[in-house]
Amino acid sequence: MSSAPPSDPAAAALPRGAAIGRYVVLSLVGRGGMGEVYAAYDHELDRKVAVKLLRPKPGAGVSQAEGRTRTLREAQAIARLSHPNVVVVYDVGTFGDQVFIAMEFVDGNTVTYWLQSKTRTWQEIIEVFVAAGRGLQAAHDKELVHRDFKPDNVMVGRDGAVRVMDFGLARQVGASDKAERTQPVVDMARALASRPDVPAEGFETLVINSSPEGAADTQEISSHSGLFDTQLTRTGAMMGTPAYMAPEQFLGTATDARTDQFSFCVALYEALYGERPFGGNSLFALTANVVQGNVKEAPANARVPQWVRKILLRGLRSASTERFPSMKALIEALGKDPAIARRRRAFAVAAVLLPLAVGLVVRQSLAGRQDLVCGGGPARLADVWELPSPSGAESPRQATIHRAFLATGKAYAADAFATVKRGLTTYAQNWAGMYRDACEATHVRGEQSAEVLDLRMACLQERLGGLHALTHVFSEANGAVVENAVSATNALGSLDRCADVTLLRAVVRPPEDRETRARVEVLRGRLADLRARFYSGQWKEGLAGAPELVTEARQLGYQPLIAEALELVGNSEIRSGDGVGAAKALEEAYWQADASRDDDVRAAVATQLVWAIGYDQGKKQEADRWAHIAEAVLLRVGGHDLTRAWLLNNEAVIGLGGRTPEEQLRVLLDAVTLKAKVLGRDNPDVGISEGNVAVSLQDLGRNQEALEHVERAIEIETRGYGAEHPELAVLVSNRGELLNALGRPHEARQSFERARIIWERELGLDSRILAYALTGIGESYLLESDAANAIVPLERAQRIRAETETDVERRADTSFALARALWETNRERARARTLAVAARDGYGKAGVARKRADVESWLGTRDGRI
To answer: Of 274, 377, 495, 681, whose Cβ has the fewest other Cβ atoms within 10 Å?
Structure first.
C-alpha cells in the first residue's frame, strides 16, 4: 500500500494507513514550511516512530531533482549523528519528490512546556540546557550546524532524558553558502518592517526564496497571534527563527557552530530570566538589536548568578569570533560554578593540612602509625580512579571521563561508561585491599619480610601506573576509545600476580644502579600509556611508539621491559593485519621473557602466537607447537585462568589439536566457564565466547541451540556495551543467519536491519561488513518468496563485496542470492545465470562442496531457459 506525497504545503495530509516506505502512517503530528511530521508504525521492527517528510531544496539555479538529491545527502549525514542528547534517526529515504527521515518517537514534552509546567531553579535549567548543548556539540563534531536551535526543538522525555530534535533543518559545515549570500536578510527585514500587513509580533512562518538573480521575494506569511516565532528560509535552507537567530543569519553571511552557540544562549537566557535578551517591537528593531549586540539589562528580580550572565553575554556577542571557540567550551564554562570551586579549594587546603595532623598522631601512637601507613591505598588512587564516596557521587576524575564519553556522540557511550565504571571501581577496590594486605602482612602481622613487601608494592605500583594511563586516555576519549573502553578495562594487568611471591621473586629484578632504575621507571610509564592507547582502540599509536621503546629498553639491557615492549609491538602488528611481523616480534618477546623468567609474559605471548601464526598465517602445525608451550607454562605457574580461557578459545576457533567439531565445541564451552569464573557471567568478554559457541553449534547444524547461545551473548553484550555498539551488531547479524536457517525470515530480517542500522551509523554506508546484513535481508525475502524486495539489498551487497570482500565464499553467497532474486522476478536472467556460475566457481575455490552442489543443482534446472 502506498500513497502519493503531498506536492505542496497546502496539500492534504496523508491518511491513516498510508505507507511511507515501510512505515505506516498513524496521524499527522505537525506541519511547517519544510514539510510534515507523522506518527507512524514500523512493522519491521515493531515500534512507533516519527517520520518527517522534507521538501527538496530547489532555487538559486538548483533544479527540483538537484534539490532533492542535496536534501537526501544532508538527511543521510544527519542520520549518522548518534548521541544520547539527540533524537535518534533510524532511517532515511525518498518518497516521491520528497525525502523522509524516520526517527524515534519521543514520549515527553518540549523545553518550552517543561519550563511552563512548574517553577524551575536556575541549576535545573542549566542542567537541561547543558544536556542539549552536548547534543549540539555532537552535531558540530560531525560538521553539522542546526541553525534553528530553540526551546521548542528540545524534548525532555518522561524519563528525564534531554534530546535535541529537528536536525532535518541542519546543514553541513563547508557546504556552499552561495545561496545564503545572495541578499542579506536584514534588507528584507527592513522592508517587511515597513509593511502594514506584517504585525510587529505574532507571525509564525515567513518563507523567503531567492531567484537565480539573487532577488528575494516573500512567498508566504501566516499569522499566529501571541507568538514571535517567525521562521526565515532562503532557497529552501532553514535560516532559523528570528527570536533565536544569530547576527550572521540576519546578515546572510556564513554560519558555523558558533551560530548554534548564539541561539543556545538566547534560549538559555530566556529560560533563566523569563524574557529574551534582545528587545524590539518589530522585526527590523529586533534585527538591529541583535546585529548591534544590544542586550537588555537583567530584570531586577532575577536570581541568576552573575557568573552565569557573563557566560551568556560572551555567547551573545555579535562577532562570532568573540564567542566561545566551541559548544564544548561553553558547556565547560557553565559547569564551573565558582561556589563549588571554592569548596573544592577549601577541601584541598584541608587535605594539605591533614598530613601534619596525622604526623602528630603518629608520634603519639605506634598502633595508629601502622593503621595510617597501611590505609594509604585510597589516597594513592586520587586523580586515578577514586573509590566510591558514601554519597555515591562521581569524583571529579570520574565526572570528567563520563563527560568525555558522552561528548563523543556514540549512542552506546552511556552504557559503555556504566560498564567501565563498574569494572574500574572493582579493580580500584581490589587494588586498595591488596595494598593494605601487603602492608599489614609486614608491619602488623609480621608474617612477611620487608623484601617481599618491596616486591609486592613494586608490582602494585606498576598496576597503578597502568590504571592511571588508562583513565588518562579515557578522560580524552574519542569514538574509538569509547568503542573499545570495556575491552581495555578488561585488559588491565592482573592483581593476582602481586600476591604471588614465588612469581615475583623469579623475575629479574630492576637494575640496582639508581639512575638506570629511574630510567626503567620512565620507560615503564611510557609503556603503560602505549598499552592503554592500544587496548582503547588507538593501536596505531602503539605501533608507532613501541619500536622506539624497544630500542631504548635494549640500550638499558633490562630484559623484562624488552619483552613487554616487544609484546606490544606484536599485538599492534596483529591489529594491523601483519601476521608475519607480529609473529617475529612475539617470538623474540617470548625468548626475552624466558631469559628473565617472566612467566606472565611467556604465557600471554605464547597464546598470542597461536593466533598470529595459526589464524593470520594459517600455519596450524606451528601454531599447535606454540599452544603446547603455552599449556606447559600455564600448568607450571598455575592460575592465569583468563589467559588459559583465551588459549582454549584460539585453539578451538583455529581448529588445532586434531579435535573433532564436537571436541572443539567442548573446548569453547570450557573457555566460557573459565572466563565466567574470573570475570563474572555478565562480563562482555564472556559474551564474545558465547558468540563463538553459537558459531560452533551452527557449523554442527544445531541451530536451535546456537540461537540460545547467541541470545545469551546479545543479552550480556547489550548490558556491557550498549544496544548500539558495533560489537553487538556482529552477534545480532549472526542471530539473523540462525533465524533464516530455522525458517523464521521475518524475525531474521529484524535482526539484520538492526545490525545494518548500527553498522551504517558507526562504519559508514560502504563498509565491507554491511554486506553480511544486506545479504541476510535479501535471503530473508527470498525465503518469503518475495524476490522483488530482495533485489535492492542484494544489489547493494553485491556492489560492496565486489569492491571490498576478499573471501570468495562470502562473495559467492551474495552472487547466488542475487541470481535467484533476478531469476524469480524474470529480470536480467542472463545476468542471473552469470552470477550463479560465478558463485559456483567461488564455492569451488573455497572448497565448500555442499554449497557448490546447490548451485549446480539450481543451474541444472534452468539450462536453456532465459
So the answer is: 274
